[in-house]
Amino acid sequence: MADNELILTDVTKRFGGLTAVDALSMKVSSGQIYGVIGPNGAGKTTVFNCITGIYKSEEGSVRWRGEEIRGMTPYQIVARGIVRTFQTIRLFSQMSVAENIMSGRHIKSSQGWWHGICPTPGSRRDEKENWMKVGELLEFFNLEEFAATPTMSLPYGLQRRVEMARALAVDPTLLILDEPAAGLNDNETAELVDTIFSIRQKGITVLLIEHDMELVMKVTDYLTVLNFGKKIAEGTPEEIQKNPLVIEAYLGSEDEDDE
Amino acid sequence: MKKLSLVSLLVFLVVMAILPHLLDTRWQTVAVTFLVFSVVALSQDIVLGKAGMFNMGQAMFFGMGAYVTAILNSHFGWPIVATVPVAIVAPVLLGIVLAAPIVHLRGDYLLVVTIGFNIVFVQVLINNLGGVTGGPNGIFGIDPLRLFGFELSSQVAIYYYAFAVLLLTLAIMINLDKSKVGRALHYLREDPLAAESIGINTRLYKIFAFGLGAGIAGLAGSVFATQYSAVSPEAFEFIQSVLFFSIVLVGGSSIPGVLIGVFVMFVLPEIFREFSTWRFFVFGFAMILTMILRPRGIWPATFGKIPKFLIKEPKNGG
Amino acid sequence: ETLKVGVQAPITGSYANEGQGIDNGTRLLANQINAAGGVMGRQIEVFTCDDQATAMASAICARELVNRGVKMIIGSYTSTAAEAAQKIYYDAGVIQTSDGTADSLTEKGYWTFLRNSFPNSAEAEYAADYMVNVKGYKRIVVVSDFSSYAVGLADATVAAIKALGGNVVSYDKIRADSQNFTPVLTNIRSKNPDVIFSAGYYTDGGQLRAQQVALGINADFIGGDANDNPDFIKLAGSAAKGAKIINVPTVDMLPYDLAKDFINDYEKTYGERPPSIWGLMNIDGMRAIIHAMEQNKSFDTRQAVEYLWNMDEPIEGITGPLKFAKDGNRIGSSYMTFEIQADGSYKIAHQQ
Amino acid sequence: METFLQQLANGLTIGSMFALVALGYTMVYGVMRLINFAHGDMVAASAFVGLTVYTQVMGQASSLFAVIAIFMLTAGLMACVGVILERVAYRPLRTAPRLSAVVSALGASLVIQNGIMLIWGPRMRIFPELVPQHYWHFGGVVISLIQVLILVISLVLMVALYLFIEKTRIGAAVRASSIDQDAARLMGINVNNIIALIFVIGSSLGAIGGLFIGLYYRGITFNMGWQYGLYAFIAAILGGIGNIPGAMLGGMLLGLFSAFISGYVSSTWADAFTFMLLIFILIVRPTGLLGERVAEKV
Amino acid sequence: MSNDVLFTIEDLEVSYGAIAALKGVSLEVQRGEIVTILGANGAGKTTTMRAISQLIKTKSGSIRFKGQELTKIPAHKIVKLGISHSPEGRRVFGVLTVEENLLLGTYSKGKVNPKTLRWIYEMFPRLEERRKQLAGTLSGGEQQMLAIGRALMSDPEMVLLDEPSLGIAPILVKAIFEQIKEISRQGVTVLLVEQNAKAALKLADRGYVLEVGKIALEGPSADLLASEKVQEAYLGKKN
Ligand SMILES: Nc1ncnc2c1ncn2[C@@H]1O[C@H](COP(=O)(O)OP(=O)(O)OP(=O)(O)O)[C@@H](O)[C@H]1O
Ligand SMILES: Nc1ncnc2c1ncn2[C@@H]1O[C@H](COP(=O)(O)OP(=O)(O)OP(=O)(O)O)[C@@H](O)[C@H]1O
Ligand SMILES: CC(C)C[C@H](N)C(=O)O
Ligand SMILES: [Mg+2]
Ligand SMILES: [Mg+2]
Predict the structure, then answer these.
(1) E234 vs A186: CB contact, 8 Å cut-off?
(2) Three-state SS for A200?
(3) Which residues cross the membrane (chain D) (predicted)?
């Protein structure tokens, strides 16, 4: 297997006259927790959409493990081990937590279409195994008691967790998170930090967007900063924190007395 | 709920198994049609209820199955049994070919396109394309079903034939819910983009739903042609598709729901035939009232069908 | 014990008024006969089943009525519904009398079927002869809708015209009730026709005529038998004048006392005139069967039909003399061409 | 050429009637995401109401004033029916799944259609020739007074409606309600009133369409609503449902399609070809010609 | 601060079907105050806001604004009374332009106050840049700005802000919080729901802590900030 590297070269995405992403290049290496930050409307989500096949960038290339994935459909990209969560939660809201997580097992299931019409012992076994896997994920994310609860009646924080569990069910190599801490309180954010670390422990590379700087500083290994679709800085969190361009465009001056 | 479903399914099966012996021939005819319509409605449920595609053209696949059987039998002298596989496969192929370019259409646009297909289909029948459809009159005098040397022409015999087809369909429906493809349909109905983003090829599964639905409807059509020993275009008009569409929604897109839907939307009007001029007026009100009282249908589909071992009591403390 | 009579007709749906006409007529006749003591002492009991003019509902109706133990079926109005039920009545030995005009109705050899109208082919021949030989039209246009009746009549007419060496410049289809016929007519206009023959129903025919005149198409207009309805004239409005209709004598034209009395009774009972000749044709069918039973002094259906096949003298009917051929066809058609006058009345332009 | 121009006139006349009816679908759909399947039957009912107004209220007077009065009265009455329809059949289903309201609409369609049959009977009713039979000849092209009236009145109404929705405060409220009713309430918009307004406008336009049908074709039947409803609904979809200029364009195009196809291609296959063309357009432009405005971002 | 009570909630109960979301909430807001409601996910903060705006029917209890009972008033009349609401999830009108969204904010007034519009554009220059863009295609944070701006357009006396900093870049969060301070200085009363408890308490005069549908704690911000319970539960001070 080639290196689990994601390389963006000169990716450009336009909406009408607006260039949302402007000749962006970046490289995410295997095992990293990689952060993308930047002001609102800088183009972060758009970059993720270009990686995951929701948009096709007009120019540039998106290479994953040496393969060009630009122009592939989302499900083809998932099949190559890249999974994402959304900035606004997109769960199957009427379905239970367990069913939501089970959806992530789709591409790992060995069943063919004909098994939907006529089951075989093999398909029954496969079904069982996948539900077992869902059980494991419920446990990992501490969601066991909600297994049968429809996700729409869960509070926001738990929905976020379900979404992440669903993404992990795919057994991804690269997990992409769009503002996973949005709407979480400090305690929940702390839990999230732990979760992200344990995900990395499983050998999964993580790429995330986040505005919660505390979290970003704590978890990421490397950062890219976007403004107006362009990269204005990249480096380790420490470097970025001190970068005057980033402070001006994004962080704001530290005029507050922090503890 | 789960227990209730099981018990009612059992009661339903027992009642249906002895039913024809309790009815006179007219009601036997209604009962057979009930079975056939149930199969079509279930097939519609695959497309509309499970995959969430607004298909208002299911009568076309139903009609295609019926016409395949009628044409092969009356023009080419095939025995009815031999026509059945073709009556399934032809609609499946048509379903796939037609669905492929249209499944990307959203809700109401798909609805119009499927209505369009249905209208084109009926016009093909009426214009007697290829000289085999019998034009506006349709085809009469189709042979009865012959199996192992027996001629199954009585309504009771056809009843059991149709009943067997319904059981087969139910088996498929139940299995579908417990399989990868069945779940994929639910996911893509709820949120196609999220479904794509966890690796589901939504296009493929939508086409699958159309194909499977078409095949089942085609089989039902074949039974229908055998029952009436006649086919004619108006039985497959788009208005008939509207009926199947409403059945699924009134019933509520669960198996018992669809069966109740067929009963309410087809058998009840038969029962109230006496009140001919008022019946549809009242019936319309009943439809409105049903939806107001049971917006998700009389017996809605439920989710949360997950294996028992996953359901844990809430932890205390911790 | 009663004599059970079934009515199978479109009580609801597009042809509701014709269906209700058949039902009303049947019940009226039954009441009249019952008041006079019934049939050989038995009162008539009428059962009605709505076939909605569809094949499927028709088959259900047929089974229901057979179950009720009826001896005869009056209806249905459309050929499609009549045809779908034929075999069930045949199997049960129940006589069915219908105004359905499709030729195929009498081609199956079911002894139980008696047509009380005249087949499409008979009208087609008359119409072709009238257009080609009598009027000498050189450029003929035929228009029909998609119903089995209209397609049957139009196909037969086109074939008959060709057989006589006539020239059909265009054969067009319109969708029944679609009202907007100007596109088809505009196309017809470019063909410079001498005559437009409309093989559909009066509702479309009336509008076709009105729109023909509005488009300035200077061609004669001839409507087939189903155009014979007062609504044709109302729909065509000022354009009705000069249009021609081919039919057997119509409700308002029936010269027989029997007809006048029956129509009067009908009007008294229901507050309106029968919607068309077709209901009356069906009543005649019923009268013929009852007549046969009384002559045979038996309610046996096979005997009654055989009696009707073998009659020497026709029975007096509301719609004219009643006589039947062995294949179930009514014989003795007497088609004529009416021309509509400015005041809406008919003038006989030609007679068979 | 003569034939072509004549077909153009034919197509535009029928097309503007489709468009008037299509606006009713599109407006209701825009705000409620509901295909109001009862709308076609409302159109049919309007024709019957109009005829009764003419015979009973106007005492069969046929002056210009009488014709205008018939239009006003009928539109007013049908607006009330529309509001009642919404109250009874749709409002209780506001928060229900989308398709439940569609079934309710199908139920309402049955009620109205059979209601017409119970009140006015199953027979065709016939309008008198209220508009003088006046024709203009341009070369070989014949255009009648009523055609001109239909075209002009429809266009004026459509443009007025468009301006109302796009340029006025209430129009903005209508558009806001069509996107997010709760958020609209937060702005102080009385969503119930807006929906009632939608039904008033939609039903009165439908009523005018129904009267045009009566005046132009003159024969009206209790079940004629289905086909006008279907065609108008398809026109709305073709233009991009929820989109007012789309409904106009869709209606006109559908009228032209059917005119040119049944005129030039084949009358036998007119429906089939019209629908195949339509299907093709939708395959190429999945949200209709002008597109439904969508702005969904992930 | 003068004891000028503008707004009170007493014993408010709300449920979604069988699920009780609020089980007797009482609170009080004085004119010109910034009051924050804290609470874990699902505590019922948003439900409280929605109940005030009458977007959800209350089961029992009362909500009074300037002495007027709100529970008997339909939702669309609330904003006329001077309460506007920037809802959770932004709820901008996606297929309307940014400017149309802002102008709808003044629908209840019937006319636009150009000064307010100016002020909002100054606060969020990005909105002015994108005046003609469809709101639905704005980035998450841009939509949040629009939602806040739209709520302020009606020159309300009291504004309800449900997680205004959600998805907003740090630099803007600071700016928004400053603006909240500013509008409060201009006499607008603010009821604020925030996940970022520390920032919210620093900004607010007083706070309430909601726990599963009930008020668990209340008091001046400084007290709450100092309270051990709050520190543990909301400020992530367990390490
Ligand atoms: N479908 C679209 N059509 C038009 N403009 C778009 C579209 N999607 C995004 N944009 C614009 O592109 C720019 C980048 O948007 P994007 O969502 O990538 O920002 P972001 O960096 O994720 O911001 P945030 O942190 O606020 O989520 C924004 O200005 C947005 O308005
Ligand atoms: N539409 C709904 N249907 C059913 N339950 C709901 C609904 N909306 C909210 N709830 C439930 O009501 C309770 C309170 O929810 P609310 O949204 O008010 O919480 P919140 O404090 O705003 O939380 P968050 O921080 O996640 O925004 C939760 O338990 C939630 O699950
Ligand atoms: C008008 C009638 C001659 C029609 C005929 N009953 C048929 O449908 O065949
Ligand atoms: Mg973003
Ligand atoms: Mg909330």
Answers:
(1) yes
(2) helix
(3) 12-31, 38-57, 63-85, 97-121, 141-165, 194-217, 229-257, 269-288
**Strand boundaries in chain C, DSSP class E:** 2-9, 43-50, 72-74, 95-98, 113-115, 140-144, 168-173, 195-198, 220-223, 244-247, 336-340, 346-351
* Equal fold, A1-81+172-259 vs A89-171: yes
Rounded to a whole number of angstroms, the distance from the CA of C98 to the nearest CA of chain B is: 16
Query: Is there a contact between C317 and C258 (Cβ–Cβ < 8 Å)?
Result: yes
Distance CA D183, CA E91 (A): 6
CATH number for E42: 3.40.50.300
- Contacts of A among chains (3+ CB pairs under 8 A): B, D, E
Q: What is the tally of structural domains in chain E?
A: 1
- Structural domain contains residue E222: yes
From A94, A145, A153, give the residue whose CB has the most ligand 2 atoms within 8 Å, as the site to mutate: A153
Q: DSSP secondary structure string, B167-203?
A: HHHHHHHHHHHTSHHHHHHHHHHH-HHHHHHTT--HH
Is A187–E234 a contact, with Cβ atoms under 8 angstroms apart? Answer: yes
Q: What is the overall mean pLDDT for chain C?
A: 90
Exposed/middle/buried for residue C18 (C-beta within 10 Å: 0-12, 13-18, 19+): buried
Q: Are 3 or more Cβ–Cβ pairs between B and C shorter than 8 Å?
A: yes
Which residues of D are less than 8 Å from A90 in CB distance?
Answer: 298
Identity of the amino acid at A152: M
- In this structure, the residues whose C-beta lies within 6 A of any atom of ligand 1 are A 15, 18, 20, 38, 40-46, 87; D 297; E 137-142, 167
> A94 CB contacts (<8 Å, ≥6 apart)?
A150, A152, B190, B303
Q: Which domain holds residue E18?
A: 5-234
C54-100 residue pLDDT tens? 777 888 788 889 888 899 999 889 888 898 889 889 989 999 999 99
Residues of chain B with pLDDT under 50: 316-318
Q: Does the C-beta of E213 come closer than 6 Å to ligand 2?
A: no
Evaluate whether residue E239 is within a structural domain.
no
The answer to whether the Cβ–Cβ distance between D287 and B106 falls below 8 Å is yes
Distance from CA of B230 to the nearest CA of C (A): 7
- Is A91 within 8 Å of A116 (Cβ atoms)? no
DSSP-assigned beta bridge partners for residue A173: none
**Cα–Cα distance between D281 and B83 in angstroms, integer?**
36
Domain residue limits, chain D = 19-238
Domain ranges of chain B: 32-238
CA-to-CA distance for D20 and D233, rounded, in angstroms?
A: 11
- Residue B257, judged by CB atoms within 10 A of its CB (0-12, 13-18, 19+), counts as buried
The model's pTM is 0.88
Tens-digit pLDDT profile for residues E33-90: 999 998 887 888 999 999 999 999 999 999 999 989 999 999 999 999 999 999 988 8
Which residue from E92, E139, E143 has its CB within 8 A of the most atoms of ligand 1, so it is best to mutate?
A: E139
| CB contact burial E8-41 (16+ within 10 A = b; e otherwise) | ebeebbbbeeeeebbbebebbbbbbbbbbbbbbb
**Pairing relationship of beta strands A174-178 and A82-84 according to DSSP bridges:** parallel
Superfamily of domain A89-171: P-loop containing nucleotide triphosphate hydrolases (3.40.50.300)
Pure H helices in chain E = 45-52, 75-81, 98-104, 114-123, 125-129, 140-152, 170-185, 197-203, 221-226, 228-234
Average pLDDT over residues C292-306: 94
Domain ranges for chain A: 1-81+172-259, 89-171
Question: What is the Cα–Cα distance from B192 to B204, expressed in whole angstroms?
Answer: 12
Q: Which CATH number fits domain A1-81+172-259: 3.30.1330.60, 2.40.50.100, 3.40.50.300, 3.90.1150.200?
A: 3.40.50.300
Assembly ipTM? 0.86
Q: Is D189 on the interface with E (CB under 8 A)?
A: yes
